[in-house]
């Protein structure tokens, strides 16, 4: 039972850790480049429509 629980915990960590890292990096980059990204998004949306 202990081995099974450890395996489950490892599986959860292997799924949760990368997602947390990705979310943290996206949040950090978006907050950092907020002023740079916003003017770029507007012309791109205008071209599509």
TrEMBL record:
Annotated TM spans: 6-28
Protein name listed in UniProt: Uncharacterized protein
Keywords, ordered alphabetically: Membrane, Transmembrane, Transmembrane helix
Upper taxonomic lineage: Bacteria, Pseudomonadati, Bacteroidota, Flavobacteriia, Flavobacteriales
């Amino acid at each position: 039972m202990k081995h099974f629980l450890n395996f489950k915990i490892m599986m959860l960590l292997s799924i949760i850790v990368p997602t947390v890292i990705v979310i943290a990096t996206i949040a950090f980059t978006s907050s950092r480049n907020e002023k740079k990204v916003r003017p770029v998004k507007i012309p791109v949306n205008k071209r599509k429509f």
